[in-house]
Specification:
The structure is a single chain. The chain folds into two domains: 171 residues, 3-Layer(aba) Sandwich (Rossmann fold), CATH 3.40.50; 187 residues, Dehydroquinate synthase-like, alpha domain (Up-down Bundle), CATH 1.20.1090.10. The chain is α/β, with parallel strands linked by helices and 363 residues long. The protein has a four-stranded parallel sheet with strand order 4-3-5-6, with helices on both faces. It has a three-stranded mixed sheet with strand order 1-2-9. A hairpin with a 6-residue loop joins strand 1 and strand 2. The N and C termini lie far apart (47 Å). Bound molecules: nicotinamide-adenine-dinucleotide (NAD) and glycine. Glycine binds next to loops.
Length: 363
């Protein structure tokens, strides 16, 4: 059965379709939004496994797909990568008002979404996310971006897709480390706003990570529903949407420090960052230490890193603090942090003493 989640954003509303095998219906689902050539943007890894099926489905629906393949990895989320993609899209013959399909993980989704917002002053796009991270988070909500040497996602646009097709069976080809990286974002939803879901994950992680279809669909749909509710009330992150950044201020600083090099995947950095956010919250007297221990224990139990000691070489406290000050969540020289008043109760705070952050980073 398909889980259908509506992202209610007035004229920018769309549906997220979650089901195993649903990519076979991509043509029928996207036909209403397509005209002329439909570039399908993907990377070499994803293309190997999943491009033929999607291209075939689009063709069967009478569309004109053109495969646009990029090299995999975070480093393509750069000005050079954006220039390359924009050029390939223009060469593809996509027309003004046409549709682009982003077939891939968060990297392809973020980059293709941004290019769609820019090429010919704005094309439509659809997401067919192929990683767990992209299915539960990055394909929904319209954040698109490239990274800068100063920090992650610093150049981008809000550009909502026309549809998201989350085919959970595409995850079967995902390397285990990538699956786990996405799982960190799944845990994030429980940790930020749903203790019951967190407890469900503690009990069901082996099924989910073992690819049991019901568990995967249930988790993906649950996360998308949580994100839908948050995005619907705060599309442009003026308030509540920042809750989705639990663990990300620490995590982004780490990713920047290691130069997006693959030493740490995004979700791995978020896992470490989440534990640090709980530790910081406990240090500030907001939540019991035991909550941070519980989150750390679960992340560790599934095989995710939870401390800076697992990063080699370990970035210095000063370096991480400097990256945090550059992060776009720093306003007026103060750091904005997502803290927790307990498991499942995240809050945004712009009043965090730097000394406490320094202590957490040096621990
Ligand atoms: P990714 O896109 O780099 O994909 C991970 C790796 O898996 C890549 O090597 C890719 O080629 C490969 N891959 C993807 N799908 C596959 C499949 N089905 N089978 C085999 N291999 C497959 O990484 P990601 O973790 O999906 O995304 C991380 C990015 O997402 C980061 O840049 C992060 O900033 C961004 N992000 C964006 C948002 C947002 O709201 N826009 C939210 C969270 C994260
Ligand atoms: N992943 C954070 C957001 O979409 O706002």
């Amino acid at each position: 059965m398909t889980e259908l989640i509506h992202i209610g954003l007035g004229p920018r509303s769309y549906n997220v379709h979650v089901a195993p095998g649903i990519a076979a219906q991509a043509g029928a689902l996207l036909k209403p939004f397509a005209r002329g050539v439909v570039p399908v943007v993907t990377d070499n890894n994803v293309a190997k496994f999943h491009a033929a099926g999607v291209i075939g489905s689009l063709r069967a629906a009478g569309l004109e797909p053109r495969l646009v393949t990029l090299e995999p990895g975070e480093q393509i989320k750069s000005f050079a990568g954006l220039e390359k993609l924009c050029s390939l899209l223009i060469d593809s013959g996509v027309e003004r008002g046409g549709l682009i399909v982003a077939l891939g993980g968060g990297v392809i989704g973020d980059l293709a979404g941004l290019a769609a917002g820019l090429v010919k002053r704005g094309l439509d796009f659809a997401q067919i996310p192929t990683t767990l991270l992209a299915q539960v988070d990055s394909s929904v909500g319209g954040k698109t971006a490239i990274d800068m040497p100063q920090g992650k996602n610093l150049v981008g646009l809000f550009h909502q897709p026309k549809a998201v097709i989350a085919d959970t069976s595409l995850l079967a080809t995902l390397p285990r480390r990538e699956l786990l990286s996405g799982y960190a974002e799944v845990v994030k939803y429980g940790a930020l706003g749903d203790l019951q879901f967190f407890a469900w994950l503690e009990a069901n992680a082996p099924k989910l990570l073992g690819g049991q279809s019901d568990a995967v669909v249930r988790a993906v749909a649950h996360c998308v529903r949580m994100k839908a509710a948050i995005v619907a009330r705060d599309e442009r992150e003026a308030g509540d949407r920042a809750l989705l950044n639990l663990g990300h201020t620490f995590g982004h600083a780490l990713e920047t420090a290691i130069g997006y090099s693959g030493v740490l995947l995004h979700g791995e950095a978020v896992a470490i960052g989440m534990v640090m956010a709980f530790r910081l919250s406990a240090k500030l007297g907001l939540c019991p230490h035991a909550d941070g221990d519980r989150v750390g224990h679960h992340l560790q139990a599934v095989g995710l890193p939870v401390s800076l000691d697992s990063v080699s070489p370990r970035p210095s406290t000063d370096e991480l603090l400097a990256h945090m000050m550059h992060d776009k969540k720093a306003t007026g020289g103060k750091l904005t942090f997502v803290l927790v008043r307990g498991l499942g109760k995240a809050v945004v705070s712009d009043d965090v003493p730097l000394a406490a952050v320094r202590e957490i980073l040096s621990a």
